[in-house]
Specification:
The complex is a heterodimer. Chain A is mainly α. Chain A is built from 14 helices and no strands. Chain A is globular. Helices cover 74% and strands 0% of the residues of chain B. Chain B is built from 15 helices and no strands. The two termini of chain B are 15 Å apart. Classes of the chains: A mainly alpha, B mainly alpha.
Chain lengths: 391, 359
């Protein structure tokens, strides 16, 4: 199954590449546009062919990139089930997955690695989605949820619960942290939203208010860290770096439920989002109800980010970088599905690296996303600069 | 004009240049701006006195004056004022000055209203250097000053180099993105170091809140030269920043030396932020908020924005420090926490009240 996908995709890529490098040669010879061979005025035919080719290659490229990203996710997913302190061959992993493995394999795969990997996928996808919606709405790559304070609310709540837990002698585990972080994120989000609302929701104002709220909440987090026992501070630090270590099926259930609700909504809203990017007036002109659409988009994106943050902590950089990367890969401004896949792949791969690089010491995944994401963004940046355009 | 600037603000992208004279501001004429500035300076003076008098051990104002003019080592009040509160107030003044000016220069230089030491990687560089210092066992205040300064300098040089490669040069978005990327990278390295060694984390968390308590005069003396050079460079770049606000091409055609201005302004930011961070730890929000307030008061002329920022930022910092001593008696809240908690609502009110004055 996997091999079929990969051969078709490479074939399409090479066709696509040749069309792009030599656009003037033989328009319409691509398999997807056979109709251009029909007779007619030569120039008109050329124009029609060019337009159609542009459209189909754009779409084809998105599909190809999407499939490649998906393939990457599948391979990495498999690898993260295989690799670890207790190495399991792929065959035993497969047996364990269908319930026929030994007890050890069943435990390692079913209880430790599988939920962790699934969590990584879902969290990454959610961050990718939230990021690209915000960045598109504000038309500014800086407007990612990391910057505008959604995660700051989750963080302050989680750290607060940790510190309070010690103060009151309560054992605080992930099952307590996740809801706390979610409530914190939701409260911060609501506050940001209400404070930014003034006769409509300007994306720019949203970003500025978000930065202000984030600064305030981060200060409180820093303060809580100075009041905490050092062991709590360390745990809190791991959490606020972003980690999928020790996440179980409960976390998967939370993430999956949220995404089942949010993703269809987002796909419906993708079309108004695309129009909103052309500017409010243009969007209004083609019949988009600007304010309700924007409000709905913000709510959905905030939902994605706060759930993901609640489960895994504010994993550095995923929401920030998934959108721009997907955009470069696909070549069109708005790429919802590729952004989600990019996020998922990024978190999966980073987690794999994080738990193997310094083994037996496990690093939180957020460290690796930061280390990997930053150079990549810089590369994008220098590339964009060379081409004379930015952002 | 008002509608035009509204549209720009909504864009979120850096605004295309508009004629500075065409925008309204609270203090429209030059004399009223000067009066406003003098009032702010007077307020700053009062706050300094307050900062000397207020604390877990309140000192009456006459005693404060007496401690300064006729110091008597036998009187406990005098000792508290001279040995604890004077250095602390002085450090707060210097740090405020540095952050306010740096924020204003940075926002003008990048033409980005969100530019802030935190976003352009300067704080992250300083923090990493301090953490590396703690890890290898160098954690005296004097050493931290130099480490933070070096870290800030290296980080901002890297950000600037990365942001300005290529034909289009150091565009606002390129710089901000480079800053965000470098910040993320540095924070990751910092976090790794902190997680691998809990003793380092234990020290770092107290540095990271940002505070001016417990600083002595030697700290002020160490950072003062850097701040002085940085402040001179910053204040001198006002006119050139005005030209840059019109866009590189127009600025060039007006005879401004664009490259030189950028380098000088960037250098001043490094000196100011590095020294301020070294003295007090990373203090968020002052560099971001104060220039916005200044711009709302004076209009877009960078010379006035710089002057107002240089006075208003220490006002904010001193007020926050005094407040931090009062609200949590007998303990106190670190100034970095108070500036954020107090500054954020002000900033939000500003964002809501009117269209933000564009840089």
């Amino acid at each position: 199954m996997t091999t079929t996908t990969s051969t078709t995709t490479t074939a399409t890529t090479s066709r696509h590449a040749s069309v792009r490098t030599a656009p003037a040669v033989a328009p319409g010879t691509g398999p997807t546009s056979p109709s251009t061979t029909t007779p007619g005025p030569e120039q008109l035919a050329a124009v029609v062919a060019a337009v159609r080719r542009g459209r189909t290659t754009g779409r084809a490229r998105a599909v190809v990139v999407g499939l490649l990203l998906l393939l990457g996710c599948v391979v990495t997913f498999a690898a993260s089930l295989v690799v670890g302190e207790f190495a399991l061959p792929l065959r035993e992993v497969a047996l364990a997955l269908v319930g026929r493995g030994g007890d050890d394999a069943a435990f390692v795969v079913g209880t430790l690695r599988l939920p962790r990997a699934v969590t990584a996928v879902l969290v990454g996808a959610a961050f990718g989605l939230g990021g690209i919606v915000f960045q598109s709405l504000a038309r500014n790559p800086l407007a990612s949820p990391d910057v505008i304070g959604v995660s700051a609310g989750s963080t302050v709540a989680a750290v607060g619960v940790l510190v309070a837990g010690t103060a009151f002698g309560v054992q605080v585990d992930q099952a307590l942290l996740t809801p706390a972080a979610f409530v914190g994120g939701l409260l911060a989000t609501t506050a940001i939203y209400l404070l930014a609302w003034r006769r409509g929701l300007s994306a720019y104002r949203l970003v500025l208010v978000g930065i202000a709220v984030a600064a305030m909440l981060n200060a409180v987090t820093s303060y809580l860290l100075t009041r905490a026992e050092i062991t709590d501070a360390q745990r809190a630090f791991v959490w606020l770096t972003g980690s999928v270590n020790g996440r179980g099926w409960d976390d998967v259930r939370v993430m999956a439920l949220a995404l089942v609700v949010l993703v269809p909504l987002l796909l419906v809203l993708a079309s108004p989002l695309r129009t909103l990017q052309l500017g409010d007036d243009t969007a209004r002109g083609v019949g988009v109800r600007v304010e309700p659409s924007r409000a709905a988009l913000v709510v959905v994106a905030l939902g994605c980010v706060s759930v993901a943050t609640a489960v895994a902590g504010p994993v550095a950089f995923v929401a920030f970088v998934a959108g721009p990367v997907a955009r470069r890969l696909v070549g069109t401004p708005l790429t919802v599905v590729p952004a989600a896949l990019t996020g998922a792949l990024l978190v999966l791969l980073s987690d794999l690296v994080a738990r193997t690089a310094l083994a037996p010491t496990e690093l939180p995944v957020g460290i690796v996303t930061g280390l990997v994401g930053a150079p990549y963004l810089l590369w994008l940046l220098t590339r964009a600069n060379r081409l004379g355009r930015t952002g | 004009m008002a509608t035009a600037s509204t549209v720009q603000a909504r864009d979120g992208a850096p605004s295309p240049p508009t004629r500075p004279a065409a925008r309204r501001s609270a203090l429209a004429s030059a004399p009223s701006r000067l009066v406003g500035l003098l009032l702010a300076v007077a307020g700053l003076g009062l706050l300094c006195l307050l900062s000397l008098a207020v604390g877990s051990r309140p000192v009456a104002l006459p005693d404060v004056v007496a401690a300064l003019t006729a110091f008597d080592p036998g009187q406990e009040d005098h000792v508290v004022v001279v040995s604890l509160r004077v250095p602390r107030t002085l450090v707060a003044l210097l740090v405020g000055l540095g952050l306010g000016l740096a924020g204003a220069v940075m926002q003008g230089l990048t033409r980005n209203p969100l530019a802030d030491p935190g976003i352009l990687g300067v704080s992250a560089g300083a923090a990493l250097a301090v953490v590396v210092g703690i890890t290898v066992g160098v954690s005296t205040l004097g050493a931290q000053v130099w480490l933070a300064l070096a870290g800030a300098a290296v980080a901002s040089a890297v950000v600037y180099a990365l942001g300005s490669t290529g034909r289009s040069g150091a565009t606002p978005v390129a710089l901000a993105l480079a800053g965000a990327a470098v910040t993320a990278f540095l924070v990751s390295v910092t976090t790794t170091l902190l997680l691998l060694d809990s003793a380092t984390l234990d020290q770092y968390r107290f540095w990271a809140v940002g505070h001016v308590a417990g600083r002595d005069l030697s700290v002020a003396a160490q950072v003062a030269p850097f701040l002085a050079v940085g402040a001179v460079l910053a204040l001198a770049s006002g006119r050139a920043l005005n030209a840059l606000a019109l866009g590189d091409d127009v600025a060039r055609s007006l005879g401004a030396r664009v490259g030189l201005t950028r380098v000088a302004a960037a250098l001043s930011v490094v000196l100011l932020v590095g020294a301020a961070t070294a003295a007090a730890g990373p203090i968020a929000f002052v560099g971001l908020t104060v220039p916005h307030v200044a711009r709302a008061l004076t209009g877009p002329d960078h010379r006035w924005v710089l002057a107002y920022s240089a006075v208003l930022a220490p006002v904010l910092l001193l007020a926050a420090d005094v407040l931090g001593r009062v609200v949590a008696r007998p303990g106190e809240l670190q100034v970095g926490i108070v500036t954020a908690v107090v500054g954020a609502p002000v900033f939000i009110a500003l964002v809501r009240r009117r269209t933000l004055a564009q840089v």
